Amino acid sequence: MSISQVEYYSIKEKSVSGRYVVNGQVLDFMEKNRDSLSIKTIGKSVQGREIKSIQLGSGPYKILMWSQMHGNESTTTKAVLDFVNFLHGGSSMAKRILQSCTLLIIPMLNPDGAEAYTRINANEIDLNRDAQNRTQPESMILRNVFDSFQPDYCFNLHDQRTIFNVGETSRPATVSFLAPAHDAERSISKTRGVSMQLIVAMNNLLQEMIPGQVGRYDDAFNANCVGDSFQMLNVPTILFESGHYPEDYERERTREYIFHAIFKAVVTIAENNIDTFEQDNYFEIPENGKLFFDVLIKNAQIIDLELTNGDSIGVLYAEVLKGNKVAFEPRIEKKGSLEGYYGHKTYNCLNEDDLKELRQQSFYQLVKA
């Protein structure tokens, strides 16, 4: 079962878009829907911003999901607001989910980082490396919610960089998943196996929408990561990574695919269909590579005389907050023989049309030595 594109756009939260998503927008969404949502203040950030949760449904399967643990990873925040709208849409499937599941959602765990558009919190701590020591108020808030709610499933919602491709292919990793390890040997416990099955369910759906654009994230074990920590506590946990879709730097298309993934996982749980998905199929999802530049300039010796024939220039965008908008500023990442790399945008300087277009780009002087 899936949601059509028309249905999705009817429930998409129009008040929140783009890459810069801050706590005020989330609180405005909650205020707008306060009569139909169970909202709770679960704590405050380092700088005193309120962190709130939304609880929906009354069923026996308890699902905890949190987003924007890293302040500059906002795509999944948009998707969970869309999912809340879906659950209040009154459809038969929404009603079934609410009868079968109790969902506790923290749309924004790191509001200080969101405001500054940084990965870290106001104390310059990566909350996703603070699962054991829990030195930060935001880390304590998440763990307190976990302990009190006692979820059956956890969804850890993130963004990933534009560098990731699927396997060794030229396809971007638009969505990536991970069933986090619970030990250094990366063994498969019963709960990790359940995480894998849910990922298989989501992958099956996404392959119909974005074939070849789903990757598997690195599963190196780190007990300080929240997903690994919760997996160690025998709760099936899934890492969601929102990646790049062609020409979608605002990640509105990726937002849609994350919504569909969340929907599929929750429906699978609600209908108690997890065991219909084969655990081994998880390993058929290719691991992520790191073979993309935002811009790849081939035969760049034409514009950079220090390079030799066939050399390339790889450019990555730095995401820089300017006012209330994220600007994508080009930075040279690598020069030389870049055989085997790909570009979200590629220019070949031996092609007159490409060279002409390149010279018209704002970053041309950056790459021209």
Task: Summarize the helices and strands and which ones pair or pack.
Layout (H helix, E strand, L loop, with lengths): L4 H7 L11 H10 L5 E7 L5 E7 L4 E6 L8 H13 L4 H9 E6 L4 H6 L20 H13 L3 E7 L5 E2 L8 E4 L11 H20 L4 E3 L9 H7 L4 E6 L9 H19 L17 E2 L2 E7 L13 E11 L2 E12 L5 E7 L3 H8 L4 H4 L2
Parallel strand pairs: 3-4, 3-5, 5-9, 7-8, 11-14
Antiparallel strand pairs: 1-2, 2-4, 6-10, 7-9, 11-12, 12-13
Task: Calculate the mean pLDDT score and round it.
Answer: 96
Order of helices and strands: HHEEEHHEHHEEEHEHEHEEEEEHH
What count of domains describes the coordinates? 2
CATH superfamily of the largest domain: Zn peptidases
- Count of individual beta strands: 14
Task: Look at the structure and give the CATH class of the largest domain.
Answer: Alpha Beta
Characterize the overall form: globular
Query: CA-to-CA gap between the ends?
Result: 54 Å
Count of alpha/pi helices:
11
Overall SS class: alpha/beta
CATH topology of the largest domain: Aminopeptidase
In short:
The protein has about 375 residues and is α/β, with parallel strands linked by helices. It contains eleven helices and 14 strands.
3D architecture notes:
The chain is an alpha/beta fold. The protein has 2 domains: 5-289, 3-Layer(aba) Sandwich (Aminopeptidase), CATH 3.40.630; 292-367, no CATH class. Helix content is 31%, strand content 24%. The chain contains 11 helices and 14 strands. It has helices at residues 5-11, 23-32, 75-87, 92-100, 111-116, 137-149, 190-209, 226-232, 252-270, 352-359, 364-367; strands spanning 38-44, 50-56, 61-66, 101-106, 153-159, 165-166, 175-178, 214-216, 237-242, 288-289, 292-298, 312-322, 325-336, 342-348. The strands form 3 sheets. The protein has an 8-stranded mixed β-sheet with strand order 1-2-4-3-5-9-7-8, sandwiched between helices. Helix 4 (92-100) crosses helix 9. The longest helix has 20 residues, at 190-209.
